[in-house]
Design goal:
Elements lengths: L10 E4 L5 E3 L7 E6 L6 H12 L1 H6 L2 E7 L3 H11 L5 E3 L4 H6 L2 E6 L2 E6 L2 E5 L5 E5 L7 H7 L2
Parallel strand pairs: 3-4, 4-5
Antiparallel strand pairs: 1-2, 3-8, 6-7, 8-9
């Protein structure tokens, strides 16, 4: 997994509308790149809605937000519309960006072990350098968690 002080990969992927998203698009601003397992699941919905509801405070503090999962663009469109999300969602169906950040790994649930997306938030400074990595994400208070520990 990438760590504090590492340069973030510039290319993040294509958003739900097919537009290219790059870290360099946010040069001079802080960027929150959060990786989540699946659209429309309870934890992922809580996290996305926390970020949506906290967008005013996040923007005032200089942050932009991009969400990334392995879901398709069509799934992201439905999720974004249903939850009225106000930030782009990257459809990383081949998991290239997820893996380049190190947000792919072994997970355990219901007694089984499998590989999947590790819920992780990266805070990237205006020069593309990772300044924080949050691995214990509080899905219901994700925006507050970012703002509290800056």
């Amino acid at each position: 997994m990438l760590k504090v002080g590492d340069s973030a990969p510039d290319y993040l992927g294509l958003d739900e509308n097919g537009a290219e998203v790059r870290v360099s698009d946010y040069k001079g601003r802080k960027l929150v790149v959060y990786f989540y397992p699946k659209d429309s699941t309870p934890g992922c919905t809580a996290e996305a809605c926390s970020l949506r509801d906290g967008m005013g405070e996040l923007a005032a503090a200089g942050y932009a937000v991009v969400g990334i999962s392995g879901d398709s663009a069509a799934s992201h469109i439905r999720f974004k519309e249903k939850q009225q999300l106000n930030f782009p969602l990257v459809a990383d169906t081949d998991k290239a960006t997820i893996q380049s950040f190190g947000a792919w790994g072994e997970k355990k649930m219901a007694g089984r072990t499998y590989m999947g997306i590790l819920r992780t938030t990266f805070v990237i400074d205006g020069n593309g350098v990772i300044e924080r990595v949050i691995t214990k994400v509080d899905t219901k208070n994700a925006a507050k968690q970012i703002l509290e520990n800056r």
